[in-house]
Amino acid sequence: MDLSLDFSTYTLWSVYGTIAFLLLAILGFIFKWGFRFRFVGATGFMAVLTVGLFALSLGLFERVEIPNALRYNLVYDTGTNQAVIAVEEDITKTELEATLQQAAIDLFSYGRTASNGDDQLTIRARVQIHKENITYPLYLGQIRRSLITREDDNPEITIFQDSLRKRQSLINLS
């Protein structure tokens, strides 16, 4: 099930619910219903929920999307300065570069720490090719970016050309 993260729509519906509970609470006090204080509690809860949804609708979850980036799976992450992603075996060089940039943006966190004095986050892209009951793991490229600043303008992208050639020859074997 795919849920939307359109918090402005959720906020609007939450406002409607808050108003409905407020009206029920007012009616409860007018007609002296025994459960009128429950409506007061529900109205307060809905108001807090509405404020929270409004805060989320301000754009706290902006996601930068790199054009031509493909989906990837996170295979290994030390939580410090190294990670490995898995990509499709038919990825092109431009798609690989874009996917590495996307992974560098997605995996950046201020909570990561440098180990061994290296203040660079290194993300490697891996593919596994299965031929004749043998699995060939190949690292196609890597990106190194700063662990300190979110907006790293100079990430160092390295594409392993020999691995790309070996991948192509393994794919053509079948």
Give a description of the structure.
InterPro entries: Uncharacterised_Ycf51 (IPR019664). This is DUF2518 family protein. It comes from Cyanobacterium aponinum 0216. Keywords: Membrane, Transmembrane, Transmembrane helix. Pfam families: DUF2518. This protein is α+β, with helices and mostly antiparallel strands and about 170 residues long. The chain folds into 2 domains: about 50 residues; about 100 residues, no CATH class. It is built from 4 helices and 5 strands. It has a 5-stranded mixed beta sheet. Strand 3 and strand 4 form a beta hairpin. Helix 1 runs antiparallel to helix 2. It is elongated, with a radius of gyration of 25 Å. The two termini are about 35 Å apart. About 20% of the residues are buried.
